[in-house]
Specification:
heterodimer, A: 589 residues, alpha/beta, Glucose Oxidase, domain 1, Enzyme I, Chain A, domain 2, 4 domains, 8-stranded mixed beta sheet, 17 strands, 14% strand, B: 91 residues, Histidine-containing Protein, Chain: A, globular
């Protein structure tokens, strides 16, 4: 029953979880918590009042436990926030202070709790760290829970809803969102909350659409109103017209279709419409991230950043610690390749005990391979660990920040030395690993022909290459807008490298952010990159974009690209030529 | 006499946030006497998540863990281990 008498209203909020759904609104509200009465109690009643408070807390604990136990399988990883809430219930600043207040001021438990919570809240609201400021919300969730038990108010029984509806609430706590039954709840909208809240994480995990931070949706939407929520763009449409309904139905179906196709196809090799295969790999920093590369259908690890182990402990990691982590990664994803990039940090700065040690210009300082060659012992330890891990799968070594021929030669000499030593010791290792270098310094682009003879592959590190070539610090907001991946200079540099690679018959990879943006794909394909590596979440969209393109078209398209004088000219050209493919694919992300 | 305090560095990405603070508090609540976390000049009770959060410990912060009594050595060691392993968030 469409509400034909009412006008269509569109509300805009935060796109908390993508997807589109149409359904009837179901308002859930919190009762009896906003108004708290204050009354005094006699000395004799203090113990009883404390007991009443304690039992409300215990009940809240039980309720949380039940929610944790009953949470759907897919939410298991997110129930930790409820575990935290459980511990918070008995925090002395909340629990202890409330009991103290009841005792000292002889007031009822509700009032004591309210007073304590408002003190704690204001303390957190005044903190400088935005994460901690947000924690005030957790305290409110926890105290609301106790308060509802104290006043005997009905809790929002989300688990009991027996109709197919869209939830509308002022706010949903993670505990409440965890009770969502996917067979009943199509999606939800809230007045409060944002993209980084736990509730929105839960929505994305459950893959239901959600729009949050609407401000006053609960005042505008009535029970049983027909509403459309579009979590992809963050809108809620109340009393939609027939036309809007039809349009949203189509959009929703299209979204589902694309999502299904992407998930279904992400584990299949990406092949262009004219049969050219392109490997799409994942970048990782922690060994645990391998799992998401596998989940998103990555063809291997195109960039394993190894800095974390060096930065996370006060002393340098030893060979065994490094080997242990590398082996984990290599084994899990074998036989697919793992490209291990050797240490890429400003070592002296990171490890020096002298905090006053400052380089005037760290981006141009003693970092990456420069640091490793200056500290060959540190470098050897890492290379030994890598060669040993290579015995357990498919490993490639990638050297960062190469700017000269000598650096490559010196690196190869040390690598040989390390392999000889391992061989003499009789340690299990594999010397048969491909060696590659990052092309991220302009000088490496210019002498690419010289370097190509010494290595098995090049990997374009576009983030640094763009920064060094355009002389732009992306962290500097005065110049950040000048940073463009599609700058004609960058495209020409990649072309130069690609030409060398083809000539010398080595391989060309790309592992910067440029590889993850679908808009760059026609150009990367046209230039002849063999392998792209990116954050794991981007893999499905990139694969799906590749399937929609033809290498033949992309190569022909490059002629027009080289006629463009500006980055914006290139971008307009890409959008003009591949716009229809792009809009469909970007939308699906 | 065994040392009753240990220095540790916060290595997890988010610093001492709610989840890691909850782990510390759960351990500290089992102690016989007080367990303290000291950062710069501030000293807080390790059994309170909220107290811990007020220290605003970002990644890389150096803090001192301290117990009041020998009998809680196991608690101290256990807490230090939590810090060293990044509260199990890394593995």
């Amino acid at each position: 029953m469409t509400d034909t008498g009412s006008r269509e209203i569109v509300l805009t909020g935060i796109d908390a979880s993508p997807g589109i759904c149409i359904g009837k609104a179901y308002l859930v509200d919190i009762e009896g918590v906003d108004v708290v009465k204050k009354y005094f109690i006699s000395e004799d009643d203090v113990q009883d009042e404390i007991k009443r408070f304690k039992s409300a807390v215990n009940k809240a604990k039980q309720q949380l436990l039940t929610i944790i136990t009953n949470a759907p399988e897919e939410l298991r990883d997110h129930t930790y926030i409820l575990e935290t809430h459980k511990v918070l219930l008995k925090d002395k600043m909340l629990y202890g202070k409330t009991i103290e207040t009841i005792k000292n001021e002889k007031v009822n438990a509700e009032w004591a709790l309210k007073k304590v919570v408002s003190d704690v809240k204001s303390m957190f609201k005044n903190m400088s760290d935005s994460y901690l400021k947000e924690r005030a919300t957790d305290i409110v969730y926890v105290s609301d829970h106790i308060m509802r038990n104290l006043v005997g108010a009905e809790t929002k029984k989300i688990a009991d809803i027996d109709k197919r509806v869209i939830l509308v609430a002022n706010d949903l706590s993670p505990a409440e969102a965890s009770q969502i039954n996917l067979e009943r709840i199509k999606g939800f909208v809230t007045d409060r909350g944002g993209k980084a809240s736990h509730t929105s994480i839960i929505a994305r995990t459950l893959e239901i659409p959600a729009v949050m931070g609407l401000g006053n949706a609960t005042n505008i939407i009535k029970n049983d109103d027909l509403i459309i929520i579009d979590g992809t763009v963050g809108t809620v449409i109340i009393h939609p017209t027939e036309e809007t309904l039809l349009e949203s139905g189509v959009r929703g179906a299209k979204y589902e279709e694309l999502k299904a196709a992407i998930t279904r196809d992400s584990h299949i090799q990406a092949e262009t419409a004219d049969g050219f295969q392109l490997k799409v790999m994942g970048n990782i920093e922690l060994p645990e991230e391998v799992v998401s590369v596998i989940d998103y259908g990555g063809d291997g690890i195109g960039l394993y950043r190894t800095e974390f182990q060096y930065l996370s402990s006060p002393s340098l990691p030893n060979e065994y610690e490094l080997f242990d982590k590398y082996k984990d990664v290599v084994e899990v994803i074998a036989p697919k390749p793992v490209t291990i990039r050797t240490l890429d940090i400003n070592g002296d700065k990171a490890f020096s005990n002298n905090p006053d040690y400052v380089e005037a210009n760290p981006a141009l300082g003693l970092r990456a391979i420069r640091y490793c060659l200056k500290n060959p012992d540190v470098f050897r330890t890492q290379l030994r660990a890598i060669l040993r891990a290579a015995a357990f799968g498919n490993v490639r070594i990638l050297i960062p920040m190469i700017s000269s021929y000598e650096e490559v030669i010196e690196t190869k000499r040390i690598l040989d030395e390390v392999a000889d030593a391992l061989d003499k010791e009789g340690t299990l290792f594999n010397r048969d690993v491909e060696l590659g270098i990052m092309i991220e310094v302009p000088s490496a682009v210019i002498i690419a022909d010289v370097l190509a003879g010494e290595v098995d592959f090049f990997s374009l590190g576009t983030n640094d290459l763009i920064q060094y070539s355009l002389a732009i610090d992306r962290g500097n907001r005065h110049v950040a807008h000048l940073y463009h991946s599609l700058h004609p200079a960058i495209i020409r540099m990649i072309k130069r490298v690609a030409d060398v690679v083809r000539d010398k018959e080595i391989k060309l990879f790309m592992c910067g952010e440029m590889a993850a943006d679908p808009i760059n794909l026609p150009i990367l394909l046209g230039l002849g990159i063999d392998e792209l590596s990116m954050n794991p979440q981007s893999i499905p969209a990139v694969k799906s974009m590749i399937r929609a393109l033809k290498v033949e078209d992309a190569r022909a398209f490059m002629k027009d690209v080289f006629k463009q004088n500006t980055a914006s000219g290139v971008e307009e050209l890409v959008r003009g030529t591949f716009g229809s493919i792009l809009s469909a694919k970007v939308y699906a992300r | 006499m065994t040392e009753l305090s240990r220095d540790v560095i916060v290595i997890n990405e988010l610093g001492l946030h709610a989840r890691s603070a909850a782990k510390i508090a759960e351990i500290a609540r089992k102690a016989n006497y007080n367990v303290w976390i000291i950062k710069d000049t501030k000293k807080v009770d390790a059994s309170s998540i909220l107290d811990i959060l007020t220290l605003e410990c970002a990644k890389g912060s150096k803090i001192t863990l301290k117990i009041d009594d020998q009998s809680d050595l196991e608690i101290l060691n256990n807490t230090v281990r939590q810090f060293e392993t990044g509260f199990g968030e890394l593995s």
